[in-house]
Amino acid sequence: MGEFLISLADDFSLDNIVRHKPFFFFFSDKAERAVKVNGELVTMSFFQEGQELIVRSDSELDSSEIDFIKGRVMHCLGTSESFSDLYTICSDDKILSRFMDKIYGNRLLSAFTDFEALVSIICSQNVSFAQYKQMVAKIVRVYGSGKVFPEPCDILADTGLLKGCGVGYRADYIVNIARFMEGKDTVDDAYSLSSVKGIGPYSIDIFMLFQKRQYDFFYVDSLIKKIIRDDYGSDVLSDKDIRQFAKNHWGKYRGLCEVYLQKFLNDV
Predict the structure, then answer these.
(1) pLDDT of amino acid 251
(2) Which residue ranges does the chain devote to CATH 1.10.340.30?
């Protein structure tokens, strides 16, 4: 087995992250994750002791592999991010202040790869969080032997298997993404995604927020409209007005505040 440590921000709480249902990084309610490194499967378990995250793998890793995994984990879990300004905004907000015990120490989790993030975003369209997780779990089970998220080449090798993953009309979009990402490790220009059928401005906003961790990106959907109308008592109607409302209330953290509102108000 291998093991390495990652220093954590003072507020970071792995327990809080896992307890309140993680998003893209963990596939279950346990702090475990399998990934492919240089074509080999590596399964990791995560533990927190004080301000250090302990990462244990089921195989020995060389220094370059450790550096790669450590870099991805630090990004995906936001281990060094500082949220003092966010906590002030949330504490002063009449709705978010009710959830400070869940927000403090929590993190928005990113996917291990950009391809995984894009497929997850497609799967999350027009469904509940629970339904999204079921789709992703089926993709992992069908294409990754229940252990690891597939790579673009795995999807393209047998696109017909997507029918058994419960993704419905999203199958064609997932294939489009796989073709776009084949041979690529990352998306350097998010706006280039607009050339992929199934990826529009809404999906790009979510990608920038969740995967690139740009918390000022904000997406407009029916749920945030309902929250602003019913919980904040605002009669803003247009997408432009909703974006301005979000900017005025939550500033540079408007996207992250939106995620917390949608998550904790609806217990998803």
Answers:
(1) 97
(2) 114-199
Q: Which two tokens stand for residue 30?
A: 């346990």
Q: How confident is the model at residue 7 (pLDDT cuts 50, 70, 90)?
A: very high
Q: Helix 114-123 to helix 170-181 angle, to the nearest 10 degrees? A: 170
Torsion of CA 256, 264, 44, 56, to 10 degrees: 90
Distance, CA of 154 to CA of 159 (rounded, Å) = 9
pLDDT in tens, 41-50: 999 999 999 9
> What is the number of alpha carbons within 13 Å of residue 21 lying toward its C-beta?
11
DSSP structure class, residue 33? E
Strand segments (E) across the chain: 2-7, 32-37, 40-49, 52-57
2-82: in CATH 3.30.310.20: yes
Say if residue 22's pLDDT is above 60: no
* Calpha distance 57→69 (Å, rounded): 10
pTM higher than 0.90 for the full model? yes
